[in-house]
């Protein structure tokens, strides 16, 4: 043990040091060496270290030491964690210390029983593990407030996660309310790597002094970027998985990496991808589980435990596993597709290899050139410590509205100035003007959430205060869930969040779910149901939504542009993609084949004599009505620029302009009256200072703003007042609330989460000053088209609907039909389609003129047998004879076609007579006819 090791633990008392020996802590981990001294000294401290490196004990050992020396009357320490799932892990680890040190450790969250809560109020534990929302509730209870007055330490786990959310903004005010109760207490934050540790420290302490103790994670990771090459095995695997060889190569590489390691976490960026990949591994019967936020708590705990026990070799997961959920030792992390941000890569790769400060190893499996270049930039930035800042919500007015009733409920009558001082001490609200605070108070008074006595300048409770506080403990908005149904089969294929339905869903729009692409046919708000049809040929489709997209920062997109700029002169000088890739290998962690394949896209760009889009050059390309501005500025800046272009071009044309963006492109679908020169004119003449106003004007009638406004106004208690008895239309909601603090907050939230006005304005300014080059080219370019496959890698382009076709085939084969001999009219039988012979014939008379009728067509069979000649029965018998003629000519194929929904003899003949290459095409044509029938059924009923 070195002097430094000894020094860390010598800051602790003999009782805790004895527990360390008992627990097997012979030497401190890196964060313990750095952070225990200031923590033991009572300083507010932010500890930045990877998951699994002993952060929890780092924070709690000095806290336990203090509580052993000075046992508290009430709660001594609070351990606040953003996920209830973490409480299970924390409890197991911290209870041991509590038992050894004779300190009581307990948990309190939404599922804690009333009996247990009562016990905690009467006899508070020394350490309470809780959530931000439960702390909000505790601050209003009379006995609990008395127990909270004794708090001397508060530990905030995963503080980076909270700092960037409204939950965190609410917690920051909650800590100041606790300060008013308990006086000064030590604040300890545990964080993953962030780009602005000082800012996060200020968030933690409310602007008070804070010691920062940070582990250099970047130098401790070994990450490789790999784009799999297609092999002969992948061709075979593709058939088994009903996908293409490219997707099969992704699955195969991940399988091989999992096999080569003991326990592997496989991170993906969306739940849809997790499900799609999971289904492929399930087909291969591999021991790989799926873990994401849409699964039930029981399902998540089950796969966590099975992975920890070694029953599963791998765990497919989303950001649900970024936080410190204990799944045992992980020796490798796979990131499927670019992690989008350096902070995410560090958090994810950081889950691997924490045995005595071991190196964390990981692989980023990429799928296309954009993906590869982006992953390379992120891997380099992560190793160099160039990570993104936490985007703190500054001055969220719905959080202010949420906290004012909570303050009044817990304190009783309160002067406005006192409440303002509490809220504005919290770091996100340090710039909140008292005038704005009073506007929020007035709105709450109008909505009868609190009573504002203007004469006394005092806030008091109303009959609705208590109910509001307990209905709004969380800043996570309640969202309705829409069921998604395939109109052809009627079956449910999944669910969609209300946010998606409001912001994106329109009849005709395309989205991805369950690893397949779907087009929206109808939205039923009354039934909360979205009716869809599968996309038959996704190769030409651009999904409007592919899951919750993680935005790529401008700095990462800019580095991708810089890589292109480095490659361009080498390719122009005669080097090929292999040589350029080999040169890049000196700076980026990837093999030659991966780099060569990515550079081939750039080689094709120059071979086509197209200008190269770089960090300093924008390229405008056009084909027909599609205009693409290649711009390496990241999601948020491109979204902002795209909205400016869409608004101003739409104004010129007098009609709407379609908009799609990714980190490297802004794609517009413009009316034919818009010339390329119009697009250039907007970029070259729009005042950069007007960007924010133009975008806000465009937002005014948008469903995206209306959706956020509905959520914000609910936190003000205003929605019921404006809504009345019916559902409020978006137009009425926007018009009713435009001049209110709620509208201002909804706009602020859109700008904060989705847009980057500052960067977009700078781009326009640089175009206009010639600091950025803007060039045009005719037709689509290889780089310009590189984004069109985004999000669709798991959907094999040639037969993406293979599973849908298989479902239709199985359904029809199991359907029942009536077979009727139209010659003797005596033989009639009901049977399943799959039992019909290839050429049916009557067992009585031997005729092959067998009509195939739907099971409900008994009256048709009766009409044929009776052979009466009134007009209605004439029609029925004609249909039966036409069906029999078709079966006589085409056998079972005709039976199958006529068993489909809405397919009579006429349409069946058209389907059968079409030339096609395989059976799948036959069923695909049947499905097309079924969809057409489903779409037009109301006209025939």
UniProtKB/TrEMBL annotation:
PROSITE patterns with a match to the protein in the record: DEAH_ATP_HELICASE (PS00690), HELICASE_ATP_BIND_1 (PS51192), HELICASE_CTER (PS51194)
Domain Helicase ATP-binding, residue spans: 36-212
GO biological processes: DNA repair
A Pfam family reported for this protein in Swiss-Prot or TrEMBL: DEAD
Keywords, comma-separated and alphabetical: ATP-binding, DNA damage, DNA repair, DNA-binding, Helicase, Hydrolase, Isomerase, Nucleotide-binding
PANTHER family given in the database record: ATP-DEPENDENT HELICASE LHR-RELATED (PTHR47962:SF5), ATP-DEPENDENT HELICASE LHR-RELATED-RELATED (PTHR47962)
SUPFAM superfamilies, A to Z: P-loop containing nucleoside triphosphate hydrolases
Gene3D superfamilies (alphabetical): P-loop containing nucleotide triphosphate hydrolases (3.40.50.300)
Stated name of the protein: Putative ATP-dependent helicase
GO MF: ATP binding; ATP hydrolysis activity; catalytic activity, acting on DNA; DNA binding; helicase activity
Domain Helicase C-terminal: 253-398
